[in-house]
Amino acid sequence: MDQFVNNITHTYPDLDCVFLNAGVQSRMILAEPANVKLSDFHSEVATNFLSFVDLTVKFLPFLMNKKTETSVIYTGSNLAIVPAASLPRYSASKAAFNTFVLCLRDQLRSSSVKVIELSPPVVQTELHNYMGESGQQLGMPVDAFTDEAYKALASGSDQIIIGAIGPTDTFNEIIDKRRAAFENLAKMMRGEK
């Protein structure tokens, strides 16, 4: 990983944004513990969460040392907020990552690095191949998602939610209240009012 980051930053010294997108997903039936492979759980968490953390820590010195504004953009998931019962590995890894992003964004609030999280709904990608042919037809078409994501990124928002799980108003209210509670706690932890 060090070699990869070193190669990228030396090959592209004008780099001002790193966009990290990774995801694997499969069902896991916790009610059948004899069939649960913990190594699969660890692997999915490593891909969906730990790889993002590792790459962030490796790219941050480069981004923070730039004299211009930089950003790091991540693909999260709406399942970080409302988990899918049949996808505990994926949901937990994306929830952990969402928490990491909130903390990183707050810790970098006075820096020139903007932290952006893009949280998609179910999108028609190979992520759902484990479901067979029906999985590839599940969710929003990629081109429609890409159009919405681009518009939202261009708006300058640091938290982009596309779609909703359940009623849109309720889902967005959960996200807004959670972020407000997080920001209030962060200020309190810094001794601010």
From TrEMBL:
<protein>
    <recommendedName>
        <fullName>Oxidoreductase</fullName>
    </recommendedName>
</protein>
<dbReference type="Pfam" id="PF00106">
    <property type="entry name" value="adh_short"/>
</dbReference>
<comment type="similarity">
    <text>Belongs to the short-chain dehydrogenases/reductases (SDR) family.</text>
</comment>
<dbReference type="InterPro" id="IPR002347">
    <property type="entry name" value="SDR_fam"/>
</dbReference>
<keyword id="KW-0560">Oxidoreductase</keyword>
<dbReference type="InterPro" id="IPR036291">
    <property type="entry name" value="NAD(P)-bd_dom_sf"/>
</dbReference>
